[in-house]
Each structure stands twice: as C-alpha cells, then as structure tokens.
C-alpha cells in the first residue's frame, strides 16, 4: 500500500488526508450500509452487525494508484512491470490450515445492497481458477447461498467460463 504495507496504514492515511468518512452508528448489513455508502467514496463503518466494515476503498483510479503508491498516470506501466514469482505450489502445512472454526459465510457482514437482490453479495471478489496448466484470476460478484456456498455468474467467452465448460466436458468439477 502507498504509505506502508498494510491496509490499516492505508486507512489511516486516507483519514489523515480527509478522504475517509467514518460512521459509528450501528447498522444492519441488510440494505442500511449501501444506503449510507452509495456514491460517498471511501467509508469506514465501525459497527455493521457487530463488525468493522470498509467500503469503496479502491472505487476510483486515483484511490487505486494511491494504494499502489504511484501517480495515476503511471499505474498501468507500474502494474505491467510486476514480475511473476514462479509456480504455484501446494504445501502440506501452513498457518491458515490451523482452522479454529468451520467456515461460515453467514457470520460475516456481507451486504445485501438493494431491494430485490437474491441475497447478500460480495461485489468485487477475486476468483482464482485453474484448469490443467492454466490459472486465471478475475473479479466476480458472488451471492451467498449458505454457510459454505456461493453463486457466481460466469460470462460466456471469459476464461473462468471456458475452464468451467472444459471441466464439464470431462465430467469434472472446476
């Protein structure tokens, strides 16, 4: 991040520069947060169903450039220069594998943004998929279907959809 290496530091610098709005009121993840955040730029809620919640942190090119620590006009060349650090490898143990509780998406303050939504959505999730030797990362909107289930809209012609179709043709899951 621009002013250090952590998201917390990025938030602190946005606040110092008067770019971060803060809301202390207790709000529900069901429609209330979106109402307060829509079109307002970076905003931090200290109590969304008992959780802290940051929204719109990278909602403009200038905010993304700031997070990367580069001028807006240099963002694309900066990203293009980032090197690939080798093969993805699987390990037998890692700190995150020491699970202290079963996954439960319904415990997180995932927002229901608008009336008529089918449920709570993660609006800008990076989905990493692999088929054979190819790996893809892309942004999707994910709807929470349950404790461990999400729905994703796969756009025909895009890489994730191509991987999914290839897996289906082989009778496999992606």
Explain what you see.
The protein has helices at 7-16, 32-37, 61-68, 75-81, 159-169; strands spanning 21-23, 43-48, 51-55, 121-131, 134-146, 149-152. It is α+β, with helices and mostly antiparallel strands. The chain has two domains: 1-82, no CATH class; 103-174, no CATH class. A hairpin with a 2-residue loop joins β4 and β5 (134-146). The chain is globular and about 50 Å long.
The number of E-state strands comes to 6
Taken as a percent bin, the fraction of beta residues is: 15-25%
Stretches where pLDDT is under 50 for at least 5 consecutive residues are: none
Rg of Cα set: 19 Å
The largest sheet is: 3 strands, mixed
Shape, per Cα inertia axes: globular
Class per helix and strand makeup: alpha+beta
What's the order of the H and E elements? Answer: HEHEEHHEEEH
* CA-CA gap between termini: 32 Å
- What is the share of helical residues? 10-25%
Strand order of the largest sheet: 1-2-3
Q: How would you sum up this structure in a few lines?
A:
With 174 residues, the chain is α+β, with helices and mostly antiparallel strands. It is 24% helix and 24% strand. It has two domains: 1-82, no CATH class; 103-174, no CATH class.
Topology:
Blueprint: H1 7-16, E1 21-23, H2 32-37, E2 43-48, E3 51-55, H3 61-68, H4 75-81, E4 121-131, E5 134-146, E6 149-152, H5 159-169
Parallel strand pairs: 1-2
Antiparallel strand pairs: 2-3, 4-5, 5-6
